[in-house]
Structure formats: structure tokens, C-alpha cells
Design goal:
heterodimer; A: alpha+beta; 4-stranded mixed beta sheet; 12 helices; about 15% strand; B: alpha+beta; 4-stranded antiparallel beta sheet; 11 helices
Chain lengths: ~425, ~375
């Protein structure tokens, strides 16, 4: 299934219509939306206090409401769920016009996709009517309760347990790497409902409010001081069966689409963000400013590094478009998203290294008036994040090799084994 | 290469691919190693009938493209050239024909190139490290109604087989291009050595070579923009060729990993091999993508054309070499033999990597373009 087929078809998708939409979008942005905030491109940096973070979240919610009231929220979401019922092309027009403007960044990923995308695809009519309009109005921020402390890339090996109790399910276990769970509203959660079948066949998906009784949130400090990530402990959390998404024990069907929507986030028809946003993160222009503030602009060595950074950025953007186009039109398999993921991870690693190199000794210690040289050393410490988050580059390499190139699958020792019997640690030493 | 060529483009591409597979298979390429010309005259004429030299020439001048975008069409042909490591001076003939047709005044030569009966090339580079778009040392003197050429040009492709050379030089007020017959008095052509089996390059020395002023292409002092465009077009063609060579080498190697067994299992089953193949696939798709972006930008004369075409050359040059060398590596001993086909594509890619500047030089030019953008904004 391509992403194209998820966008509702509109009969009014003519060029005139798109032109008119563009005109309206320009007018709306000019009249009601401010310029891009500096924090939009901060990535995983530590920016300010918790109060600062909460103010930013409140700002995003209000901004989402502004987009909603003006008819620019949920562009490709059906009208019955509060969306605009327009096409992917309209979303792209909005994203193009958004360049340089502020936008509700925290409402996009993971709220619009993968969470809302999964609800749209697998949710009941009631679930969709309850949550999707609220999401589009900025009232519900969603997070993925997907990764587990012992899980890593083996997402289907979830240990979070859900046991049926009448019309309810009782959840126990722990989820981790949930961005901003402490300021979010709802979670989409993968849990194990059957331990007596192989791992992929015993999972189910649930939704619940993050402030439900029995959920304890612990924030995790990253090595650069950022505290966006959280770990959640669920202790007898009760979820009504009406908040199950998809069939009992059929959670992997939901899960595979869930992860597809996650991988597709930069190409998703549900995401509103400036088309060229990727460029602003350590592209050639940003690296050039570092060289400038370091007083080495114009040297061959600096020019070569700046040029390399810009080259990697331009290639990444070309590759993203190629893969996106290929997947939309079926000339490339959906699994090709892993190619762009692998590239994105490695490219950002290299551009961070270039930034450190250009910063010179400011990479070791900097002062507040060092301009663009500041924080390069700290960013470098977090360099590997781009190869870890959202599935590691090693997993992407496996997907490319096995699903795109058709090379043999790695042997899995948990295949056809009841999950209960799968080893989850070193075997105890025998006496 | 384009993910979705239109029907006419696909037809053009497939016709060239089929022709090259029949007329220039690897066993034929090997025999051309010791051939002074590097390609056969009948082969060239037949190929030219498929449109190889006409795509950058307007319809009024006897050419025409299939999509309305001749350079993009030509990049499809160039891709097949690379995939076949095909012989023949494609870039110089296509680009010079386009340049002559745009400036007007050399109708017979253009008609000859379009029929394959006349061969042309260009003389722009001057030393091993001159990768500036413009010549710096080679000066033209104007004496009465004549232009006098004195100096040396390098890397003149197929000079030994060309009837005319488009020579670029410095005049007092700018850059000038002139069309010179290779049999003019005072021209000396010395063959160079090269890594490719079928491409031929020469050092051409001009000793007091005199041509009438009406041999000037365009007008005196005003050729800088034309030269820039020619260079960009040539890089687009080289990039497309390189990506074609990468694609063929990758396909051969992927197949090999399935066929070759070690320790009771195929190479393709080892994760060490799989992850490196995944990286190669990433380099390959990224190269396709940036080559297409650059071709479209040059064809549209976009303000970003120079930056994109240099970024493409830098990326394809560097990561394409990694890919080609990995392909050789995965083949083990057989990969470094003359008998195996892989080196044909490695040669073509390596030639193109160095021809219009090294990856590092292209990266610096990308940075220069950023400086210009920043000065404008």
C-alpha cells in the first residue's frame, strides 16, 4: 500500500484549485502566523528550563488551533473527522509556503504521524470521532509507547503485558524513549496479549491517557543535559476494550503500518512543516556561518568542508524526493524508506563532525559571544543520535539488504517458538 | 536516472541500450584497447542515427529532443553509455553541436555532426589542475582579419579523429571560442595515456595557427557564459555515465553475492556483506537522485545549476568510487583480472571522476557558490 492511497481523492484537485489554495495559504500565514522560532531547529539540544518547555508546548497547541480555525489543519484528513478532505498536493503546497514561518512542531511527529495515521487506518469510528478532531484542534498531543528498556530494535519482542479482565485490559510493564511524555496527553501502546504463540502473533495495540492511574513517568537526562525523553512504568493500568486498536493478538498488523508511518514521517501526507526544513540543520549555509565566526572562511580547508556539508545536504534532499516519489508511484518498494533513513543518519553524523572541525578549539570550550561556534562540542557528543533514533542504521541496512535487495534474512532464533520460551538473556551457567 | 521517464524517453534509452549491447559488448571493448581510434566509424554513424548528437541542437537547426528537455534526454543516453562502458566521443560531439547551433554560422559542421560524418571536439583544459570553468593561459591574438592561436590544450577528446576543434581562449576583453579545423597548419596532436580502454585524449599544441575571424563562434570576448554552459552540460553527461557504470557494477556484484558460496553458504547471507551492499545501494540511489537534480537544473538554467552540478560531480565522484572499488573487492581475485568485466565500468567511472575536476575541487566550488548566494541575499 502506498502512501498515496491513504490520501482521500478529491474531485476538485485541479491546478486552479491548488493555485487558489496557495493564495489562501500565503494570506493566512502572512496575517496570522509569526516567523520561524529559533527553537524549531534546536534538535536534541538542551534549551531552557521546564517552564520554558511548557511555554513552548502551550504555544504549539495554540498555533495548531490557529491553523485549525483557518482551515489549514488535517489537510488530507477526511472532513468527517475534522480535516479538510484535500489531497497530498495541497499539503505539499502548504509545506512549501510554510518556509520561514512558525508552525506547531510538537503536533506533527509523533502525533499526526504515526499516531493519528494509525488511528485513521485501524481505529474504530468512535475512536476516530473522539480523537482526531481533538488532535487537529491541538487539544491532544500523542506519544508512542513503543520502545521498551530491553527491546532495542526488536520491537515485536515487547514485554509490556496486557491481560483481559472482563471489558477491560490490565497493563503492566515499562516503555521508554518517549519524547515529552511528561507534557503529552495520549499514548499509542504495543503490548503482549498472548505469550503462548510466536512473538509476532501475540501482540495487541491500545490507547490510553498518559495521566491514567498507575502510570509513573520518569524523565531521562541525555548526555548533553536534554531531558525530553521519558520512561514510563505501568502498574495495573486499566484500559477499556473499546480503546483497543485493531484485533486481539493482531497487533503486529497494526505495528508494521505504525512503523511504516513513522519511517515515512518526512514524506507523510499528514505532516505540516516547511518543505525544506531538513536543510536548516547543519546545511552548507549553517556550516559556512561557523567558518565565518571562526574567522577561517575562504581558506581551502574550510571551503572544502563547507562544500562537503552542502553537498551532503543537497544529495540528502534529492534522495528523499526520489525515494518519496518512487514509493508514491510504486516504482520503488515502500521498504526503500530505509535508504533515506540510512543516508540521513550517516549524513548528519558527518555534518556534525564537520561542524566540530570548523569550530576549532571552540569545540573544546566556548564562551557566550562565540556566535555559531558555541555548543558544537556538545552537539558532537550527541552525534550518534541520528543513527539510533527511530530504528538504528544497522536495522535500516538489514531492511535494505533483505527487503529491497532480496538478500537472505538473518536467522532468527525466536521464530516459530512460543514467546514464553524465547531466551531473553544469557542462559544461567550450569553447575 | 529518471525513475519515471516518459514513453519517448524510455524508447530512446532502450534503443541505445540495445544497440550498445549488440555493437559494443565487453569482448569487443577489450579488443579496442590497442585500437588507435578507440571506436569504429560505422558504429559511430549508426549510433548517431539514434539521436546521440542531436539532442542539444534546436529543431530549426536540424536537431530536437524527445521530451522538450534535450539535456535530460541526453543524460538517459549517457547513462546507457556508462552502463555499457561504450566507446565514442559522446559528450564533445553533443555539446559542441549544441554550442555551434546556438551561436549560428557553422551550419555545415553541425549538419555533419548530426549525421555522424563529421567529428568535433573541444579544447578547453590547459594543465593537469586547471579545473576552472574558464581558460587562463591560452591567449588568442587578433591580427587584421585573422585570429592567431599559440599554446597548448590538454585532454582534448578524440582529437586524433576530430575534423574540428572548438578552442576556448582568452582575448583582451574576455573569453572567446573559435572553431578550428584539425588539419590547419601549426597544429600538433600527441596522444595521452588514459585509464579507459576506449576513450582517447590528446595534448594539442597550436603553433602560430591562423584562422579567419569568421571562425569565431558567437562573438569575440563574449563566450564566458557559453563556456560555462558547455562545462555544465559535459559534467551532467559525465555524471550520468558514471551512474550508469555504477548501476551495472552494482547489479553484477549483487548477482555474484548470490552465486558465490563460501563455507557452505552464499556471500549474500553474511551480514558483513549485506550491510556493505546496503551502503552501496544507498550511494547508488543517492547518485541517481543528485545526477537527475543537477541535469534538470542545468537544463532549466536555474540559478542553482552550478551548485547542484558540482555537488553531483563531487558526490558521484567520491562515493561512486567507493562503490566501484567495493564491487571489485567483493569479487575477490577475479575482480582484479583483465578477464572480468568489472574493470570496464571501474575505468569509465574513474575517468569521469577526474576529467572535470576532483571531488575536492568540486566541493570547494560548491562552497564558492554558497558564498555567492550569501552575498546576494
Amino acid at each position: 500500500m502506498s502512501t498515496e492511497s491513504m490520501a482521500p481523492v478529491s474531485n476538485t484537485d485541479t491546478l486552479d484549485d491548488l493555485d487558489e489554495f496557495r493564495r489562501r495559504a500565503k494570506e493566512f500565514l502572512r496575517a496570522e502566523v509569526g516567523p520561524a522560532r529559533a527553537s524549531l531547529t534546536a534538535g536534541l539540544r538542551k534549551l531552557g528550563t521546564d517552564e520554558d518547555d511548557l511555554r513552548e508546548v502551550a504555544h504549539d497547541r495554540a498555533l495548531q488551533r490557529t491553523f485549525f480555525d483557518a482551515g489549514f489543519a488535517g489537510i488530507t484528513v477526511p472532513v468527517e473527522f475534522g480535516g479538510q478532505g484535500l489531497t497530498r498536493a495541497h499539503q505539499l503546497v502548504l509545506n512549501e509556503e510554510l518556509e520561514g514561518y512558525d508552525y506547531p512542531v510538537r503536533l506533527q511527529v509523533p502525533t499526526m504521524t504515526p499516531c493519528m495515521a494509525v488511528l485513521l487506518e485501524f481505529g474504530t469510528e468512535q475512536q476516530k470521532l473522539t480523537h482526531i478532531p481533538a488532535i487537529l484542534r491541538g487539544e491532544e498531543l500523542w506519544m508512542q509507547f513503543l520502545s521498551e528498556p530491553s527491546g532495542g530494535s526488536d520491537v515485536a519482542g515487547a514485554l509490556m503485558s496486557a491481560v483481559r479482565d472482563g471489558d477491560e485490559w490490565v497493563l503492566n510493564g515499562s516503555k521508554v524513549w518517549t519524547t515529552g511524555a511528561w507534557w503529552s496527553d495520549w499514548g499509542l501502546c504495543l503490548a503482549r496479549t498472548n505469550w503462548d504463540v510466536p512473538k509476532h502473533r501475540g501482540l495487541s495495540v491500545f490507547i490510553f491517557p498518559i495521566d491514567a492511574a498507575g502510570i509513573e513517568i520518569q524523565r531521562i537526562e541525555m548526555l548533553n543535559g536534554n531531558m525530553d525523553f521519558c520512561q514510563e512504568y505501568l502498574d495495573d493500568v486499566r484500559v477499556p476494550d473499546s480503546d483497543r486498536v485493531g484485533g486481539v493478538d493482531d497487533g503486529w498488523t497494526v505495528g508494521t503500518r505504525w512503523m511504516f508511518h513513522e519511517r515515512m514521517s518526512s514524506n507523510s501526507p499528514f505532516v505540516t512543516r516547511p518543505q525544506e526544513l531538513e536543510r536548516s540543520s547543519l546545511d552548507g549555509a549553517a556550516l559556512r556561518r561557523i567558518a565565518r565566526d571562526g574567522g577561517i572562511s575562504g581558506t581551502d580547508a574550510a571551503q572544502e568542508l563547507v562544500g562537503e556539508g552542502e553537498m551532503l545536504t543537497l544529495v540528502g534532499s534529492a534522495l528523499g524526493r526520489r525515494v518519496g516519489q518512487g514509493m508514491r508511484t510504486g516504482t520503488l518498494s515502500d521498504q526503500s524508506a530505509a535508504i533515506a533513513r540510512l543516508y540521513g543518519g550517516l549524513s548528519l553524523v558527518r555534518r556534525n563532525t564537520i561542524a566540530l572541525e570548523l569550530a576549532g578549539s571552540a569545540g573544546a570550550a566556548w564562551s557566550d559571544d562565540d556566535g555559531e561556534l558555541a555548543l558544537r562540542g556538545e552537539d558532537f557528543l550527541m552525534r550518534q543520535a541520528s543513527c539510533i533514533g527511530g530504528g538504528t542504521t544497522e536495522m535500516a541496512s538489514n531492511v535494505i539488504a533483505e527487503r529491497v535487495l532480496g538478500m537472505p534474512r538473518e536467522r532468527a532464533l525466536d521464530r516459530d517458538v512460543a514467546f514464553r520460551d524465547v531466551p531473553r538473556g544469557p542462559a544461567p551457567e550450569e553447575n | 536516472m529518471l525513475l519515471e521517464p516518459i514513453e519517448d524517453q524510455a524508447f530512446l534509452r532502450d534503443t541505445t541500450a540495445k544497440f550498445l549491447a549488440d555493437a559494443a559488448p565487453p569482448q569487443v571493448l577489450r579488443t579496442l584497447r590497442d585500437d588507435e581510434a578507440g571506436f569504429d566509424e560505422a558504429y559511430w554513424r549508426q549510433g548517431v542515427e539514434l539521436g546521440w548528437t542531436s539532442l542539444l541542437v534546436s529543431e530549426e537547426a536540424g536537431g530536437g529532443s524527445v521530451s522538450g528537455d534535450g539535456l535530460v534526454d541526453l543524460s538517459l543516453i549517457a547513462h546507457e553509455f556508462g552502463a555499457a562502458a561504450a566507446p565514442g566521443p559522446l559528450a564533445p560531439n553533443a555539446v559542441v553541436a549544441g554550442a555551434l547551433a546556438r551561436s549560428g554560422g557553422h551550419d555545415e559542421v553541425v549538419a555533419g555532426v548530426l549525421s555522424g560524418g563529421t567529428l568535433v571536439s573541444w579544447a578547453i583544459d590547459e594543465d593537469a589542475h586547471n579545473v576552472a570553468a574558464m581558460p587562463r593561459l591560452f591567449r588568442f591574438r587578433i591580427e587584421g582579419t585573422e585570429l592567431v592561436l599559440d599554446g597548448t590544450k590538454r585532454l582534448v577528446e578524440s582529437a586524433n579523429r576530430s575534423d574540428y576543434l572548438l578552442v576556448t581562449g582568452v582575448t583582451p576583453g574576455g573569453i572567446t571560442q573559435v572553431l578550428v579545423a584539425t588539419d590547419a597548419a601549426g597544429i600538433e596532436i600527441r596522444p595521452m595515456h588514459t585509464v579507459d580502454l576506449t576513450r582517447r585524449f590528446s595534448v594539442v599544441t597550436f603553433n602560430n595557427v591562423r584562422v579567419p575571424l569568421d571562425a569565431v563562434v558567437g562573438s569575440i570576448d563574449t563566450a564566458a557564459e557559453a563556456v560555462k554552459l558547455q562545462r555544465r552540460q559535459a559534467i551532467v553527461i559525465a555524471n550520468a555515465e558514471s551512474v550508469g557504470a555504477m548501476q551495472r557494477a552494482f547489479d553484477l556484484t549483487l548477482e555474484w553475492t548470490f552465486d558465490r558460496y563460501s563455507f557452505g553458504r552464499s556471500l549474500a547471507s553474511y551480514q558483513a556483506i549485506k550491510h556493505r551492499m546496503a551502503s552501496m545501494k544507498m550511494w547508488l540511489e543517492a547518485s541517481h537522485a543528485i545526477a537527475d537534480d543537477a541535469a534538470a537544473a542545468v537544463a532549466a538554467d536555474s540559478p542553482r545549476a552550478e551548485k547542484l552540478v558540482r555537488a553531483a560531480a563531487a558526490y558521484i565522484g567520491e562515493y561512486g568510487s567507493e562503490l566501484m572499488q567495493e564491487c571489485v573487492r567483493f569479487h575477490g581475485g577475479i575482480g582484479v583480472t583483465y578477464e572480468h568485466d568489472l574493470h570496464l565500468y571501474l575505468r569509465r567511472h574513474t575517468l569521469n571522476r577526474a576529467l572535470h575536476g576532483t571531488p575536492a575541487q568540486h566541493r570547494r566550488r560548491v562552497a564558492v557558490e554558497l558564498d555567492l548566494e550569501s552575498a546576494v541575499s
